[in-house]
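Appendix B, Record 12. Input sequence as logged:
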Amino acid sequence: MLKNLFPTLGRLRLAVQLVMLLVTVYGANLVGFYMAEKISSALPALSCAYDQQNGGYCILIPTQHQLHHRVGEAIVRAQQFTVQMVIPLLFTLLSFFAFFFVLGKAFCGWVCPLGTLQEWLGRLGRRLNLPLRRFDADNVGRVRPVKWLLMLTLVLALPLLTGLGVTPHGLGNPWCEVCPSRIATTLLTGSTEQLALRSGSLEFVLGAIANTLIGFTLVAAFAVRQPFCRICPLLSFNAVFQRLSPLRLVKREHDKCAKCGVCAKACPMDIHEIAREHGARAYHEDCTLCGRCAEYCPDDGVIQIKWGPLALFESRRDYYKARMKSEMPDGILKPRPMENGEAHV
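Logged structural output:
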């Protein structure tokens, strides 16, 4: 039948062309303009959307529209995001890694002003013969997760949620609002401004928490070594990257280890693992690289502080004996003999 109507393929094609010309140019007259738009907006043939009687649009129309209003604008927003967000964050992290590569977690044990202040208060507590409180191996694990919780909530989650408009503007930098170092260091400059409680419910609560934390830190430091360092989110932040720094604590396996336990007693962070572990496991996440475990190890070369292949310090028996003459591993000072036979501290 079709052979009789269209004896050649050319004629069949011509008939299809005529029908489709009517549909693509005048098709909306049959089904209505809005229905024609719904039939197709992505025909694989030229069919102009400017034709108000068109039966369907070609794909070039929505492609251009989406590239213009979706893809192009999204790329512009992505560029703005890169310039305004990614690049500043990248430079912040690169600056951090530049410093961290050199000293690693030793920034906690050697540089941090709040850590230094706590250590000095602890020494004063020993001179005043105040009792020393320690965390034993059974309960120290209850304190260690706190620093991770503070980092995840106050340093990461709440600022991000504030930027997204979920939480109030006052929670944009919640850690700085409660950090005891903010109050301690400004007090050392003679300024009491950061102690003042501000008006506003949220600001008042954050200020009260900050005052409570600095009070706890200063008082507890007399009886507990490095009390705030144990829950400091910067310690957890540094712990994430501690393997990226060449500066590290190294402990080799020794047949006397885990018997004397002197290194664990010397550790101000109560890291009991240092006495029984060796290798990478001895370099605990709470370690601040203060070096006291190496100072008070009574065996030669068992504990080292190394920067890459270089041993910066290693345990020595003669050093241990000399150290024990003035200070016990737990920080208690020994009385020094006076020339007339009396003793003083």
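The CA atoms of residues 50 and 151 lie 57 Å apart.
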